[in-house]
Design goal:
The protein has helices at 41-47, 52-55, 117-122, 124-134, 154-165, 179-185, 217-220, 237-244, 262-273, 290-298, and strands spanning 2-6, 15-19, 29-39, 61-62, 66-74, 85-89, 100-104, 108-110, 145-149, 169-174, 189-192, 205-210, 224-232, 252-255, 281-286, 305-309. The chain is α/β, with parallel strands linked by helices and 312 residues long. The mean pLDDT is 97. Bound molecules: NADP nicotinamide-adenine-dinucleotide phosphate.
Amino acid sequence: MKALAILKYGGPEQLQIVETALPKPGRSDVLIRVHAAGVNPVDYKIRNGSLKWLTGSKFPKILGGDVAGIVEQAGKNSVYKPGDKVFAMLGFRGGAYAEFVVVKEAWLCHMPDVINMEDAAATPLASLTALQGLRKGGEINPDDKVLINGASGGVGSFAVQIAKAMGAHVTGVCSTKNIEFVQELGADEVIDYTTDDFTKTDQKYQKVYDAVAKSSFGKCKKILDSGGIYITTIPGAGIMLQKSFNFLRDKKAASVMAKPLGTDLTFIADLMKKGLVRAYVEKAFSLEQGAEAHKMIETERVRGKIIMKIIP
Ligand SMILES: NC(=O)c1ccc[n+]([C@@H]2O[C@H](COP(=O)([O-])OP(=O)(O)OC[C@H]3O[C@@H](n4cnc5c(N)ncnc54)[C@H](OP(=O)(O)O)[C@@H]3O)[C@@H](O)[C@H]2O)c1
């Protein structure tokens, strides 16, 4: 099969089209014919070797942590049958930048009829990070005030919609050019980070979700309500230290590491069926344009999501 892989860690130029053997599904796996793959910041972090302590030194390495496609082969007791349209997050194992990928059945979800392959490929990793992050510190109660920093990005655009679907009053933080987009996502209020510092507002929030991990618990605790929680998407040393003091404090610090749970993706799919959540794809690339896709995701300026179409 054709795949886009790296033969060593490095820049976007390391992404090369290779011919490789079809992956073999294990007992609890399903073989998917890939139609589209999501492109996420973690893909470039894997490509450039920043995460090699996790991703090892075995090459070629096929990247891609989000897949949308059609079931090619499944076990005889599987709930999935050849021909089913499915989507999934693949975790650090990746493999979606290819014509076929093997996915654990527990990570899969049937694609809702209301979305196409491109939107489906854009959804799993970002929406699961949004959902699992927003659940930190307990479920959102109707009318809770939730602030999303980085509301125009992949994780942030899903977080705004999911928090709204849960009944929260949502404030989105983005730059001037994305204000209308974040309003369109459903945010009740928008703060432009190029003109205003959201950590200096008089408002208090039950949850501050730092989807782009550009702030800190230290800066945000002033705007947390009593019992409130700050959640970041990068589990660095600073947040780990802050988490260890949570038992002493009323206001908590948390980080999220997205898990590829099919059950959580089903929750997202249901919100999509109800018209409460959708993916926003800024640009679609071909597999051959993988290096361009990586250059774009590395800018940290993507509005919504970008994807690669494996079947044009
Ligand atoms: N822990 C996990 O499991 C997990 C999972 C997914 C992602 N992540 C991490 O979470 C981060 C965000 O991921 P993503 O997919 O949302 O990224 P993304 O889509 O590439 O984020 C791009 C967006 O961030 C906005 N942005 C950039 N700098 C900003 C700032 N200083 N303040 C507010 N917004 C800013 C940009 O808007 P402007 O152009 O308007 O600034 C753009 O719309 C990445 O570091 C990623 O690696 C972690």
